[in-house]
């Protein structure tokens, strides 16, 4: 959130059309989706800590769902808004890790 505040842009992933600048610093130098990567690690942690097979089984479901219904639409909106700047960023930084 700090990087978004520095850039004076929205942090809301549901409204990428409201972005006023492209954030590529901080954690965003390593992954385009640190929030979702964090959720994946939480699911893995639940599996390790509690032996919760549902956490492990839910992992590919979560990754598929969030990629299809959140990440890809967000990427299309950011590409439309920031064009070659966003295309260059996606060529350099992975979606996940």
Describe the 3D structure:
It is a single chain. The protein is mainly alpha-helical. The chain has one domain. 64% of the residues lie in helices and 0% in strands. The longest helix is centred in the C-terminal third of the chain and has 30 residues. It is elongated and about 45 Å long. The two termini are 19 Å apart.
Task: Annotate the secondary structure layout.
Blueprint (H helix, E strand, L loop, with lengths): L1 H6 L26 H17 L2 H30 L1 H9 L5
Helix pairs in contact: 2-3, 3-4
Structural category is: mainly alpha
The general outline is elongated
Terminal-residue CA separation: 19 Å
Low-confidence stretches: none
Beta percentage is under 5%
What average pLDDT do the residues reach?
A: 93
Reported for the largest beta sheet, the result is: none
The DSSP helix count reads 4
Q: Roughly what percent helix? A: 55-70%
Q: What's the count of strands?
A: 0
Whole-angstrom Rg: 15 Å
Written as H for each helix and E for each strand, in order along the chain, the element string is HHHH
Whole-number count of domains: 1
Keywords, separated by commas or semicolons:
mainly alpha; 97 residues; 0% strand; 4 helices
Short description:
With 97 residues, the chain is mainly alpha-helical. It has helices spanning 2-7, 34-50, 53-82, 84-92.
């Amino acid at each position: 959130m700090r990087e978004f505040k520095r850039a004076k842009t929205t942090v809301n992933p549901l409204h990428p059309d409201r972005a006023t600048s492209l954030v590529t610093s901080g954690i965003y130098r390593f992954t385009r989706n640190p929030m979702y990567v964090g959720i994946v690690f939480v699911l893995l942690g639940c599996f390790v800590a509690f032996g919760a097979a549902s956490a492990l089984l839910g992992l590919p479901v979560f990754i598929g769902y969030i990629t299809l219904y959140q990440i890809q639409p967000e990427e299309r909106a950011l590409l439309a808004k920031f064009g070659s700047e966003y295309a260059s960023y996606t060529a350099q930084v992975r979606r996940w890790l």
